Amino acid sequence: MALPEFSMRQLLEAGVHFGHQTQRWNPRMGEFIYGDRNGIHILDLTQTHPMLEQALQVVRETVAKGGRILFVGTKRQAQKPVADAAERCAQYYMNHRWLGGTLTNWKTVSNSISRLKEIDEKTADGSLEGLTKKERLGMERDQIKLQASLGGIREMGGLPDLIFVIDVNKEDLAIAEAKKLGIPVVAVVDTNCSPDGVDYIIPGNDDAARAIALYCDLISRAALDGMSTQLETAGVDLGALEEGSVEEAIAEEAPAAAEEAPAAEPAAEETPAAEA
């Protein structure tokens, strides 16, 4: 495997260059804006391309060292691409709603994850059948709520080593928590956003479905490349694996790697979106 390649044409076709209406711009993004067209800011893809490449490199290196990546995208059009991409590369995601303290109060979040696993086990072994109807319905409601909020991080086993964010305005709390703990942030930053707090900026449209799908696919493939490197370092002969089984081997290796990796300690639609 190798770091994923992408072309300027792919960025154009996905609408990565379309920003927001000119009156909604954030001056902090001025250096990344090429110009405007019909009242819409146009991002400079000659800057986006190398900055996206750098972000992919960081993702690959993080995973190759056994690090965890947390995909964060809770807006409607990002929810499915974020979940699919994270699952494809055996990483983790938050795509429902960012819960305050997810990173800075990890101990409490871990307790909630344990609760979710406990309910899942009781559901699987039939233990819920011995409860009253009211108790059973209460547990089922808790299960649905916890799965939606924490299902994507239930196997993370500790704090992530890097987070990848779609829409820094919407996910400002996640970024603030990551910065407080010194966790690097890779993020897509649109023309109406501030890049403050983002370590690896990807100037680009954060609303168009095709653009979001492209970012998520590239980040996922970079993570897979990193995990491939990790397996090779561990002595796994990837060339001997059957075609199509590399990703399965990577996915099987991920839980063990997550358990072994030391957990950081907390200190604490295809067109420019006018009114996202």
Short description:
By secondary structure, the protein is α/β, with parallel strands linked by helices. The protein contains 8 helices and 8 strands. It is globular, with a radius of gyration of 20 Å.
Structure description:
The protein is α/β, with parallel strands linked by helices and 276 residues long. The chain has 2 domains: 172 residues, Glucose-6-phosphate isomerase like protein, domain 1 (Rossmann fold); 53 residues, Helix Hairpins (Orthogonal Bundle), CATH 1.10.287. Helix content is 46%, strand content 12%. It is built from 8 helices and 8 strands, in the order αβββαβαβααβαββαα. Strands 5-4-6-7-8 form a 5-stranded parallel β-sheet, sandwiched between helices. Strands 1-3-2 form a 3-stranded antiparallel β-sheet, with no helix packed on it. A hairpin with a 2-residue loop joins β2 and β3. α3 packs parallel to α7, α4 crosses α5 and α7 crosses α8. The longest helix has 25 residues. The chain starts with 7 loop residues before the first helix and ends in a 16-residue tail after the last helix. The relative contact order is 0.20. Belongs to the universal ribosomal protein uS2 family. Keywords: Ribonucleoprotein, Ribosomal protein. It comes from Jannaschia sp. (strain CCS1).
Fill in the keyword field for this structure.
276 residues; 5-stranded parallel beta sheet; Small ribosomal subunit protein uS2; ribosomal protein; Helix Hairpins; Ribosomal_uS2; Ribosomal_uS2_bac/mit/plastid; alpha/beta; disordered C terminus; ribonucleoprotein
